[in-house]
Amino acid sequence: MYYTKVIVQHSSGSKAEGVKVALSISGIMSGGVTQNVYTDRHGVAIIPHESRGSAKVMVKGTTRTTIQVPGETVVFI
């Protein structure tokens, strides 16, 4: 099992609590969309996943960026 950390912040810099985050991981056999995880009061979502590689970071149902997973990123909304 791998884990990716996504930090969600408002454009003002404040932490976004309770925001839905998921990863869409590329791959024919090992890809797929993770379960939704909601950010904590610090704006942090730790997303468990089975695969490594390129993944789209989806926040509130919208793709915000693409990263290599496992990893860590900050997304502004």
Descriptive notes:
This protein is mostly beta strands and 77 residues long. It has a single domain, classed as Immunoglobulins (Immunoglobulin-like), CATH 2.60.40. The chain contains no helices and 8 strands. Strands 2, 3, 4, 6 and 7 form a 5-stranded antiparallel beta sheet that branches. β6 (53-59) and β7 form a beta hairpin.
Give a brief description.
By secondary structure, this protein is mainly beta.
Task: Write down the domain tally.
Answer: 1
CATH architecture name = Sandwich
DSSP, total strands: 8
CATH 4th-level superfamily: Immunoglobulins
Top keywords for this entry?
77 residues; mainly beta; Immunoglobulin-like; 5-stranded antiparallel beta sheet; 3-stranded mixed beta sheet; 0% helix; elongated
Give a topology summary.
Layout: E1 2-9, E2 20-25, E3 32-33, E4 37-38, E5 44-49, E6 53-59, E7 62-69, E8 72-76
Parallel strand pairs: 1-8
Antiparallel strand pairs: 1-5, 2-3, 2-4, 2-6, 6-7
